[in-house]
Amino acid sequence: MLNRRTLLAASGAAALASPAIPAWGQNFPRKAIQMIVAFPAGGSTDIGARIVAASAEKVFGQPVVVVNKSGAGGQIGFTEAARSRPDGYTLAFINLPGMNTIVLDPERKAVFGIDAFVPVINQVLDPGLVWVKADSPYKTFGDLIEGAKKNPGKISACTTGILSDDHLAILMTHEAAKVEFRIVHFDGGAQQITGVMGGHVDVAFDNVGGVFKRVRSGELRGLAVLDNERSKFLPDVPTAKELGYPTIISSSTRGIGVQKGTPPDVIKALQAGLQKAMQNPDHIHKLEEAGLGFKPMVGEEYAKYYADLHKQAAKYTEWALKMR
């Protein structure tokens, strides 16, 4: 009988038919590769990046160094990545729709556009999760909504950044449930943990991968998964859809891109190498352990998703800006 790891590897292999690295790309890389993560160390974005970096090192035969450049809801890191030399040695770990909304918000004055990066490969799709600390008076999502209706603008809800997927999820909740939270913006999941556990913030809108182990242990309580289906990592937590809010659907996808102008042969070598790295059973297993849903998209598929999500994010951003 196939064991779980074998099944995971087979699943990943089916999703990624990895080609050999092209002969004309064999000279790449010749030195260490840097991967810029626009959020702090310790959050689910950082964890996923470090898992794929460790696997990619074995494929490329060179160090793949994760560098955290957090701040301004990811804008600092994305800006530095966009300004880097387009030679394949500085990768951008891309969070969508977080990066989209930075570009779309005129007040952010981003110095890069959505076309600043060429999407190479996606790694993760992480559904949204609403959670509180274990001793919170809000035992269910219904309790939270009822409390917010009774106390408009009083219950504090935190995000991982301005116009992040978490911020949009709060705004969706405002609209769907006819409530209003006091929104607190942090720069990543680690700050959310500190804020909620310290009693400074009432509730977090986050992602499953960031806190699923703490929810399983009973340290935190998951109130609602913001997806069409329950998460396999938290099967006992209902979806907002189940609870009567089908329009509150939110997730964060994370993948890898390079700067516009990167030579095509380098992009192909990166794509082939990263495909191989992500197929590694150890990579898939570690994602599973971290509660990160493996969602590989490569080439045209990822490019289409990248473009389509930008159009979708434009609608959400326009709505969010009107509510400022």
Write up this protein.
The chain has 324 residues and is an alpha/beta fold. It has two domains: 4-126 and 253-322, Bordetella uptake gene, domain 1 (D-Maltodextrin-Binding Protein, domain 2, 3-Layer(aba) Sandwich), CATH 3.40.190; 127-226, D-Maltodextrin-Binding Protein, domain 2 (3-Layer(aba) Sandwich), CATH 3.40.190.10. It contains eleven helices and ten strands. Strands 1, 2, 3, 4, 5, 6, 7, 8, 9 and 10 form a ten-stranded mixed beta sheet that branches. Helix 2 (44-60) crosses helix 9. The radius of gyration is 19 Å and the shape is globular. Residues 1-15 have low confidence and may be disordered.
CATH class of the largest domain: Alpha Beta
The fraction of residues in strands falls at 15-25%
Radius of gyration: 19 Å
Order of helices and strands: HEHEHEHEHEHEHEHEEHHEH
Question: What general outline do the C-alpha atoms trace?
Answer: globular
Q: What is the fourth-level CATH superfamily of the largest domain? A: Bordetella uptake gene, domain 1
Largest sheet: 10 strands, mixed
Spans where pLDDT lies below 50 across 5 or more residues: 1-15
